[in-house]
Batch of 2 targets.
Target 1
Amino acid sequence: MATHIVEKKTYYTVFAALMVFLAATIGIAYIHLGKLNVVAALAIAFVKAWLIILYFMHVRYSSRLLWIFVGAGFFWLAILFALSFADFLTRL
Amino acid sequence: MSDPSTALAHQFDDIEQQHESASLGMWIFLATEIMFFGALFLGYSVYRSAYSPAYSEASRHLDVVLGGINTAVLLCSSLTMALAVHAAQLGGRRTVVMFLLATIILGSTFLGIKGLEYYHKYEEHLIPGAHFEFPGPNGPRAQIFFSFYFVMTAMHALHMVVGVGIMLVMILLTIRRRFSASYYFPIEMAGLYWHFVDIVWVFLFPLLYLVDRS
């Protein structure tokens, strides 16, 4: 819902941030962090996705109702992962 | 159709409600897409935690340079897509077509590089099936990794192809003056789809290419 027209400058800033995060993802992958490598990679991916959703997809400027719809998809995904891993990780 | 009074469909109170309705509908569709790809990511994750060493070894056979370039290409395409929607909000036809074209070119570049990667895998005998070859004890488990790699990236590529098709339609409609500053919603909804496909790749790249590079 963008009756609010986002400035082009915002898009460029977000894009620059995304590219920086991409470089960080690749760079960190080559540093040995053990278990933290996947955590770092996923964390950066989440931040990038969040930036794209908020700004490129205009969610930041949208109604609460839209936020709920956006959240619903990811909420269901969380259920999928939570219950599946609750089973899988607790198998002997 | 560029006249605001004809853009409003009769079942809506006003154009804002129509716009929000379109966005809500698109996000419901994206929720189904989240679950669709989510299932693939879940399967990948279960096997990754079970076969960690094999995944590490198999992942190193993927080309980080090409994968990284592809990620950058898709991020650029998201920028051009956002700028296309921006131009549509301001009612500019030429700029919209220009940015949509840029988005298509970048998306096609992504697909071309993906095809090149697939070809390399074919040459290296890393396509799961009768001709799969992976020396060492991790062979069978590596094949599972590559199965996920091909299915997930192929599904993603298929979505990209559909996206490119949708953008072509948007270009056609824009040229035919179907949009205006008060009615540009199809372009914005197409943009939502495109950004979503980009987000899927943002997760695919580190999970497939960067498993254990240190």
Target 2
Amino acid sequence: MTKKQILMIDDETDIQTVARIGLTMTSDWQVTVASSGKAGIQQAKRQTPDAILLDVMMPDMDGIATLKALKADTQTQGVPVIFLTAKSQAATRKQFYELGALGVINKPFDPMTLAGQIAGFLGW
Amino acid sequence: MSFITDTVLDTETLLNAAGSLIVVFDRQGKVQRFNRTCENTTGYTETEVKGHCVWDFLLTAEERTATRGIFRQLASGQTNRYYESTWLDKTGGRHVIAWSNTVLTNRIGRVDFIVSSGIEVTEQRRSRRQLEGQYRQSHLLSEITQKVRQSIDLTEILQVTVSEVHGLLGCDRVFILKAPMDEFIQLAAESISELPQGPAQSLLQRPWPDNPLLQTGYVDHYRRQSVSVLDTVGGLGAAPEIMDILSSLGVKTELAVPILTAEPPDTPETESEKAYSEHFWGLLIAHQCSQSRQWSPWEIDLMQQLANQIGVAINHAELLDHLEESVIRRTAELTATNQQLRREMEEHRMTEGALRRSENQLRLITNALPALVAYIDTYHRYRFNNYAYETWYNISYQKIKGRQVSDIVSMTVYTQMLPYLEQALMGEKVTYEAEMVLSSGDRIWASVSYIPDWQDGRVKGLFSLVSDISDRKATERMKDEFVSVVSHELRTPLTSVHGSLRLLATGRLGELNAQGQELLDVALRNTERLTRLLNDVLDLERIGSGRGRMTPTVCNVSNLLQSAADAMQSMANDYSIGLNVQVADISTLEVWADPDQVMQALTNLISNAIKFSPRGSKVWLQARSLSHKVEFLVKDVGRGIPSDKLETIFERFQQVDTSDARERGGTGLGLAICREIVQQHQGRIWVQSVHGQGSRFYFTLPKPEESLQERAS
């Protein structure tokens, strides 16, 4: 069984670090990171991860635009996306789901339970 | 005919044929010739007078000196003097003669003879005097009449009358007595001849009762009479007492004329009914003291006419007095009325002035307001607009009055306004916010309020108040952005810090010694606290701004309770608290609410309950159905809340005991957030607690209306 591959797209490298360490501590998944929407899309096309953890607030191309782009691309449209966001209003959450996200995780998140939350959203 | 010629030429014959009186004097003044006319006139014959001077016997005493003077002048050569003299005839009769004189001089110019030629003008003089008298009479009459008409001074009129009459009659005394009934008789006016001694003394100097003329006895005699002429000498006349009085005063003849005035009846009705009776006012009396005298008819007539005039004058004077009184009274009345009128006008003016001032004030105030203030009637017409309408719509604000609202605002705006306008015109106060475009093209946010104008139980129109809230909106937008940015900006580093500490604290990345571990725990705890604080502050701000960020939907109550319990399970486990969710009878119970917010409220309450309960105890979650709402309950058996803090505990940063906060990790905002959430749902939140025995936190949420209607049908 191949290990699950998670791609994390977030412009904050510190958060990448925390998430990465947390995930690797609590699971056997492989974690890759990208620091921008554009880079993330390229990475996704190259890698075809099992899931993408996507930050919402990013400069240039924000999470929503990135998601739209991912969904528009045949190569990446099948990849499940979970949003990571500091905002937690119901209205925006509804919007995320409507765009095709499978889950929304709030920041600050607990790196020790992050894997569990992701698995929960994706039914792993 | 020579005989006639001879006869004519005879000097003597000529002299005696002449109709005029001819006298020839020598230079000494002795009569030389005295013609027949002279003889006829004087009764003296020529023979008797020849050689005598005329002034010895012909002239009156008063004229002697004057005539001698004239004669001397004539004698010295001054010719043709004309003069008049009075001759006395043999019987003592008087003749007035008008003389003209010439002189006859001798060869050396010395006057030898004086020839006087005269015409008797006695009759002429008498006629003239009579005429003069009549003239004077009528003149006097007209003068007095004029005075009566002009002058209102009765005293003056009376005095003038007696003076003039006195002069005209040439008698010794003329006076007027005023004799009112039952009052003192007064001497109203008097004119006397200038003889200080003698009988014609001034009666004015003799007061009553010394003055017999002022006795009633005297006057009463005349009351019934018309003209009275009394003569003491001849005994003509009257009662002996009167005669005695007159005699004692030295009066020879008296002429008394009553002065009558018209007495108006007490209550005059119509003009035609006014019957003036004659009223005896007093007497006009003329006395002749020096001698007895016959009053000529015209003199009596004059007196009567004057008495009439005096009567008229007195009437006028009395009338004038009455008039004056009336005028004064009427003037006073008019003045009072005028003052009253003026006062009323002043009041009216002041009221008007006050109204206008108040209107102006209203205009001033409303014109100074940046908001639009208007009055709209039931036909959607503007009846009042303030100045702000000019800046908003670029129309002269006075021109808007009377025009339809749809004419002034754009159709879009009118469509926007319409439902609210109609609602207000039905009597409901409405407020709404709308975006509007001004004439300048600027887009603004406006807060519009319509307040119905109730008059006599009907809505006559509405007051409209429109304020520009663009600033507020902009501020809100900025705050939203700020909250958004802050939440992201603060949470990002927090995530990193918290996450790192969390991973370190597991010990799986390397062991620290006990103290190290302790410090790590401290750091972790406080980042968690920081995170919670940040979350709570941002939540409170977001919820409390009341901008309808919540999206209510139909929520199943039991699901809500269960989800909340699930979310708090791990914490409950940490504190060894049992969560008891009672959903048995409420499987179909629903509320109309934002599920996330309800969750937040429930988790806050549960969190508090867990924190303040003793280990091993329970926390209960319940809900029950009420008429239009659902009542939620979170119950614990913890420390409870003192009664004086039951209300304040919902305030921000209020805790029962501040020491608790740090130990139990609370932020002090949890209950405030709960309250905001519940109030946003038009619900109520409260607590029942007994200090030391536990607390029961209640809150209500509305039921969905559709389901209510369904159940109703």
